[in-house]
Amino acid sequence: MTDDRILGHLARRFAISEENIATEALSWLLRAPAARAAIAGLARAADCAVPADLTFVGQVGAEGTGRPDIVGSDSAGVERLIVEAKFGAGLTEQQPGGYLRRLPADTDAMLLVVAPSARLPTLWVELLRAVPELAASAPAPSAVGPVGMLHTRIGTHTTLALVSWRSLVTRVLDGLRAADEFTLAQDAEQLLALTEVMDSAAYVPVKPGDLDQRTGHLVHQLERIVDRTYRDIENDPTSPAEAYRSRSSHGRIFYGWYLRSRRTRVAIWFGFLPRTWARFGISPLWVQTTSGWNRHRIQQALGGLHEPGQAGLFEDQGFVSPLTIPVYASEAEVTASLRGQLEDFLARLDAVVPPDESPVPDEPIDDEESI
User: Fold this and answer.
1) Is this prediction's pTM over 0.70?
2) At residue 227, what are phi and psi to the nearest 5 degrees?
3) What are the domain boundaries of the chain?
C-alpha cells in the first residue's frame, strides 16, 4: 500500500494542502548536501550546469514574478534552480513566465516543475503553451534516462523542465542513503509515500483508444455480473447468505447489492467500486463490511485478508476486500466464483459470532455513508 506511512495517512484525513506539505518536506530534506546534490544532478542531466551545493529557501516572492515554492541560489546569491510543486492545482498567472524571468540570462539556470506522473503529458503541453518563445514551435521534449524528466531549452542558458514526484524524491532518497543520512532518508520515505498517495488520486488524461467500445462493454458487463450473482444467492434457500435491502447506485459512483448471513444477519455490500479500483487496482469488484462492527471484531474475522500478500484493507467505511474475476471464464463460471467468495466472506464474519449472541438487528443502511 502507498498510504501506510503517517504523512500520507494524515494528508488524506485532514483538509490541508498536500502541495504545501510536500514542499515543506522537500525543503526540510534539502538541508542535507546529498539532497541538494541530487536535485542539482537532475539539472545537469539536462545539460544545465548548476552548482551542486545551492542554498535553498522556500516561498521567495518578488514583484511581478510571483512566489515560487523553493528557490536555489548559488554562492553569489543568484537564483539558479526554481522548484515549483504541483499536485492538482493549475498554473497561475506567473507560471511559468514570471518564474522564468527570475532566472539569470547569462548563466545556466532551470525552472523545475514537479507533478504526479499521470499529469506530466498534459501539464507539459500547458507549460509550453504558456511560454511565448515555445508556443509557436512547441518543441518535442527530450527524456533523460530512467528519471523520465521532460525538458527544453529557452534561449541560451535557461531550461524549463518537468519531472514526476516519484522520480525526484527517489533520486533524493538514493542520495541520502548513499551519504549515510539515515534519519533524513526515513523522512524522504515519508515524502515518497505521500506523493505516491497523491499520484494515485491524480487526474489521468484520456489517451486515444482508452475509452473504446470494448471498455464500455466490459464496464456494462460488470453490472450484469453483479446482478446475476445477487439473484443466484437470492433464489437459493440453501445459501448461507440472503438478499438484504435494495440495490445501491446513487450518490458516490458505485453499483452493488447488500447481502446478509442467514444465521447472524450480519450484512455486507458487494459490487462495482471505481474509487477503490482506481486507488489500488486489483479488481473493479469489491466486498465491504457495513456499519455495526468495530475494528477489533473485524480484525478477528478478516485479519487473514489483511496480512502481507493479501489485498484486504481497512478504510474509514469499514473493511474492503477485492473480488477476483476469473479470466477466460464464462459468465456462469464468473458468477459461481463470485458467489463462493461472498459466501466465504460472510462465513468468516459468522465464525466470530458466538452461538448464544443475539442476531444483529435490522437497521436502516445509509448507502452514502456505508460505501
Assistant:
1) no
2) -60, -45
3) 6-201, 213-356
